[in-house]
Amino acid sequence: MTKTSQTAIIGVLTASDRASAGIYADESGPAIEAYFTRVLTTPFRIERRIIPDGFESVRDALIELADNVGCDLIVTTGGTGPAPRDLTPEATLAAAPRELPGFGELMRKVSLEQVPTAILSRQLAAHRGKCLVINLPGKPSAIELCLNAVMPAVPYCLDLIGAAWLDTDPGQVKAFRPKAK
């Protein structure tokens, strides 16, 4: 089943004091963009931002991407650990208060199969109106693992909240949508 729609807008938000200051290159944002380029078959464009860690910076960037840019999906990277400036989950819930706990549960489950410190991760997903926000870890290999885990549900979630239509290459990741009755 396919649906004709507008080009989806995907926000990629890197929360990192050091990357935003130019101390090191952001590898996570490009890894996310490469992932979507590989798995999505429907038209989309990426809106990338690199911001410092912290509550206000993340919250304000999410609101700007959702409300002003019109993102259908925002994927964050960084700021999900227990360090004092890791406030991406709190900022996400301030900007997108309707949490979808299964996303975080699944991302931690698959990550724990790889590394015991994944229990420290606080990734989550929530939505702000028609925009789904997913918090990912900062390491490119962990990003791939987590996106592979949750991506089958993302297109249908976007359908349910009224966002743009996304579809995937089933050879990469098979999107699941219930069959119409």
Structure explained in plain terms:
This protein is of the alpha/beta class and 181 residues long. It has one domain (8-161): MoaB/Mog-like domain (Molybdenum Cofactor Biosythetic Enzyme, Chain A, 3-Layer(aba) Sandwich), CATH 3.40.980.10. It is 39% helix and 18% strand. It contains seven helices and six strands; from the N terminus they run βααβαβαβαββαα. It has helices at 17-20, 28-39, 55-69, 88-95, 101-112, 140-150, 154-161; strands at residues 8-15, 44-51, 73-77, 98-99, 125-128, 131-136. Strands 2-1-3-6-5-4 form a six-stranded mixed beta sheet, with helices on both faces. α2 packs parallel to α6 (140-150) and α5 (101-112) packs across α6 (140-150). The longest helix has 15 residues, at 55-69. The radius of gyration is 15 Å and the shape is globular. 44% of the residues are buried.
Write the layout of secondary structure elements.
Layout: E1 8-15, H1 17-20, H2 28-39, E2 44-51, H3 55-69, E3 73-77, H4 88-95, E4 98-99, H5 101-112, E5 125-128, E6 131-136, H6 140-150, H7 154-161
Parallel strand pairs: 1-2, 1-3, 3-6
Antiparallel strand pairs: 4-5, 5-6
Helix pairs in contact: 2-6, 3-4, 5-6
Question: What key phrases describe this protein's structure?
Answer:
181 residues; alpha/beta; Molybdenum Cofactor Biosythetic Enzyme, Chain A; 6-stranded mixed sheet; 7 helices
CATH architectural label: 3-Layer(aba) Sandwich
Sheet bearing the most strands, described? Answer: 6 strands, mixed
User: Average pLDDT, to the nearest integer?
Assistant: 95
Given as residue ranges, the uncertain stretches (5+ residues, pLDDT < 50) are: none
What is the number of helices? 7
